[in-house]
Design a protein that fits this description.
Order of helices and strands: HHHHHHHHHHHHHH
Mean pLDDT: 85
Structural class: mainly alpha
Distance between the termini: 32 Å
Shape: globular
Number of strands: 0
Length: about 325
Amino acid sequence: MSIFNNNIFKGIFGTTISLICFFIFFNKIDDLGKVIEIVMSVNLFVILLGFLVYFISIYFRTIRWNSIFENRIKIKLTSLSRIVISGYMFNNLLPARLGELARIYHFNIVKKIDKSYLFGTILAERITDVIALFIFIGVGIFFVPTDLLINLSDELGVNINLIYIFLILIGLSIIFFLIMQLEKYRKIMTTFIPKFNFINNKILNIVDSFFKGLFNLEKNKIITIIFLAIIIWIIEFSMFYVVETQINLNLNNTFLAIIFFGVFANLSGIVPSTSGGWGPFELIGTIVLISFGADRESAAAFTIIVHLILWLPISIIGLICFLYDLKVRKL
């Protein structure tokens, strides 16, 4: 019951954050009719092409997840790809990243695996996403407009130091994650956990299994997985470029603008929100584009379109994948 109540709290809290973000988002748009007009004017073929480009990244996401646990779990890539797709569907439909729990459930429909271990591998996968996004920040930081973070803080109505703290905390989390992949530090973790003898052995086993999923990457493997994460984001950013050809954003530097749009809009997913990250994605993404010279209406329309491409088709396909495996299990 406590877990159920905790998930309800996460859902309510995430929905509240999304509503606040949407309130700020719409409050900053002068002409909502123009936004709708721009969204409706985009060629459906371009939207389809954008999704096909994005869908290629699913293959690399499947390869990456399989690489994380390939020595411990044997599963067909076709089955794993259905699980990955349905995982995105559940995240699109459930608030506060509860879709990750649904992904674990789907995995156990196909193949029975320790759930806490699986959750650890999913978290490792998500952290490599953040590492890749930080690499993009590092590459482009010397070319980005100096007022980008200032605009973010002003538009969000928060102190710029909070944004710096947010980025620093993420950076420190990345460093901790990378350090814990080193065998000598993993050994410290595995020897340290049993000392909590006042905790139930079942809980200790769950924690130990979770850490084995999270901190099990050797040096060569983690380099490969981060490289795959970079490819994944390059593909997704390419989809943004496809959509950008249909909207006159008048960006000062299209290449950098699209990259930093993708980076900060996706980092906003760390903030608890409603299903699919609606709200933070639109608000942060629009502010970034405005910082690169786009007008508010065009920036808002672009953000809505790419989010729809990321959200709607994969949700439909993911539902089909989940129902397929559910049906096969019952046969």
